[in-house]
Amino acid sequence: MEGIVIKSTGSWYKVLTEEGQRIDCRLRGRIKLAGSKATNPLAVGDRVRLHAEEGGGVIEEILDRKNYIIRKATKLSRQTHIIAANIDQAVIIATLAYPRTSTGFIDRFLVTCEAYSIPAVIVFNKYDLIAGTSSRDKLDDLTKIYEAAGYRCLHTSATEGINLDLFSELLRHRISLLSGHSGVGKSALINAIEPGLNLKVQAVSKAHKKGKHTTTFAEMFHLSNQGAIIDTPGIKEFGLVDFEAWELCHYFPEMRNLFNQCRFDNCTHLNEPGCRVKEAVNAGEISISRYENYLNMLLGGETRKKS
Questions:
Q1: When comparing pLDDT for 75 and 253, which is higher?
Q2: H helices of the chain, where?
Q3: Which pLDDT band, with edges at 50, 70 and 90, does 201 fall under?
Q4: Which pTM does this prediction carry?
Q5: DSSP-assigned letter for residue 162
Q6: Residue 21, number of CB atoms within 10 A of its CB
Q7: CA-CA distance, 146 to 39, in Å (whole number)?
Q8: Which residues, including other chains, have CB under 8 Å from residue 160's CB and lie 6 or more apart?
Q9: Rounded CA gap, 225 and 76, in Å?
């Protein structure tokens, strides 16, 4: 039989077969030793070939992926973690309320999406909590920055029902990865547009202003609008898998648009003369925050020099 992985616990996988069966499966041992640096050879969204046996099923083969999105397993680890496979778009849920999402986190997420050719959308949730505050101006500024870079931005509130129709339409007929910090309201947003799912929601800690993990394992849910979402456990940090230093700028669309306009073809936009990107930053054509986050990735050990 063939099917799609809809839940992963790390040792067992729930597979939805083409016939509509949901089968708890284990992974054939030889697949685990395929030489991949990934901590998980199989991810939600993977299409697999399996056979049923008493008490469950065995996954015999992982079929070719259309795409996948990946991050460093931990800050100090050289291993990677596949977040999801075969997705149509990645949606990062962010907030300027509690917990605040940094632009560094957002940009690392977007860079990874660019690297794996996955369209990305930014949803700023908890809009009701910043109305009439200085954070509202900050949100307007961020929206302009990311829309100028080519990303769609959406402002939502799960509790007040703000733009939920647009959020639902965003997910229609697509397989979407939803990601973000714990507490940004992923589960609340999903429940708001699909109440029947009744996903677990917890309040953000007032003392630490951080969310608690409500999603334990990555899982795919099918929606009544013919879309599907992959809900992931909240991510504290988004570590980049090492890129070559010269290629990092290609994953910033506003820098990529200036390709071949610098004096040197291998310009890293750091301190080289005749750099068109630095000129664009100084002229306000590229946001300073995006450029600073680029430098942090370039100089922070997340890229490697070409050997």
A1: 253
A2: 29-32, 103-115, 134-148, 164-171, 186-193, 253-256, 276-282, 288-299
A3: low
A4: 0.88
A5: B
A6: 12
A7: 32
A8: 127, 128
A9: 41
Tokens of 53: 């046996």
Domains of the chain: 2-62 (2.40.50.140), 68-231 (3.40.50.300), 243-304 (1.10.40.50)
Q: How many residues does the chain have?
A: 307
- Tokens 């149509």 correspond to 88
Reduced to 3 states (helix: H, G, I; strand: E, B; else coil), residue 255 is helix
Compute CA distances 103 → 86, 139, 307, whole Å.
26, 11, 31
Q: Which of 182, 211, 178 is nearest to 194 (CA)?
A: 178
CA distance linking residue 289 with residue 294, whole number of Å: 9
Place of tokens 């890229």: 303
Q: Where is mean pLDDT largest: 24-33, 60-69, 202-211, 226-235?
A: 60-69
Residue 275 contacts residue 262 (beta carbons within 8 Å): yes
Partner residues linked to 286 by β-bridges: none
* 11-15, 28-32, 248-252: segment of lowest average pLDDT: 28-32
